[in-house]
Input
Amino acid sequence: MKIEKVGVVGAGLMGSGIAEVSAKSGFDVIVREIDDASADRGRARIETSMNRAVEKEKLTADDRDAALGRIRFTTEVDELADRDLVIEAIVENLEAKNELFGRLDELCGEQTVFASNTSSLTITDMAAATNRPDRVVGLHFFNPVPVMKLVEVVRTIATSDETFGAAFDFARAVGKVPIAAKDNSGFVVNLLLVPYMLDAIRQLERGVASIEDMDAGMVLGCGYPMGPFTLCDFVGNDTTLRIAEIMFEEYREQRYAPPPLLRRMVAMGRHGRKAGRGFYDYSGDAPVALPV
Ligand code: CAA
Ligand code: NAD
Output
């Protein structure tokens, strides 16, 4: 099972990062987005990230140009037909992911491996919607993809050893450290991280301290790279809400229940850093906490 041609579906926060690390590692990459404006935003995100690496002398300008030259954007799903591996990083919604995989199942060759970057859905639920459950696997990258070293490689009871091995090798080939995870909602990291993020919002609802002070507490007191509200904004509050809904539905445990404040934030379009507003306002030089 040789992986040379990679398809990435979705060029948001995660898809753009997955396309970037794949192209930098020499893979030929096609990225599918829903419209030209979204594709342009994805391309700009990749260029900004690679330019930053060039400025910091972590990447040469020639290598940047070569990597950018290996990425092609399209709005046509049909163009993914010849890919060896397709990784989806679209919205966290099972119907949307299954509709995509159903279409890819018709289009792609028999050997094509399908991978999902889902945070909280089970890979089994996606594999069951295809005619190739043995070639469906989880490849869960972390945000920001160019920086975070981990990839959770997730196998279902149907994933073949060959598919799992190819996915593991691919994660290593893009410079990441893979760990093997079973197919339970949240895999390893989100099982532990999501309750922490949701609990911070619940404590904010209770009024224990301000957003800035709670963030400073976890950064200065525990050495976390960012506080919980900066992290929620970084992940995307819309995405965190979907994750919480899915994990609560799966486990029926209070620690995964979406706090009402999170719903209100999303209803108001305060999706986080990608939207310019979340727990903080990102329009100025430094983030400023907003009223909640
Ligand atoms: N894209 C590419 N590179 C980036 C980047 C981005 N969006 N943001 C930062 N970087 C790079 C910088 O260029 C810099 O690189 P060098 O070390 O080579 O110079 C490095 O990351 C550090 O950046 P900064 O000095 O600007 O900022 P920082 O020290 O505050 O680090 C951070 C930024 C790496 C994001 C750090 O704050 C961090 O690790 N935060 C926690 C992130 C985290 O928890 N991610 C997991 C989210 S949960 C998830 O992903 C799973 C899920 O399913 C929801
Ligand atoms: P995002 O909102 O930044 O981007 C999603 C992108 O997918 C959008 O650009 C949208 O236009 C596009 N899209 C939607 N439907 C599509 C389709 N049918 N075909 C092509 N493109 C489509 O979301 P994100 O944060 O990148 O999350 C994507 C996935 O990765 C989700 O499953 C999420 O749970 C998971 N994830 C997110 C994070 C994170 O920190 N944000 C971390 C790990 C995993």
